[in-house]
Amino acid sequence: MKSNLLTYLLTYLLACFVPFLLYSFHSFIHSFFHSFFLSFFLSFFLSSFLPSFLSEKYYVLNFICFSLV
Question: pLDDT by residue (tens digit) across 31-47?
Answer without folding.
Answer: 777 777 776 776 666 66
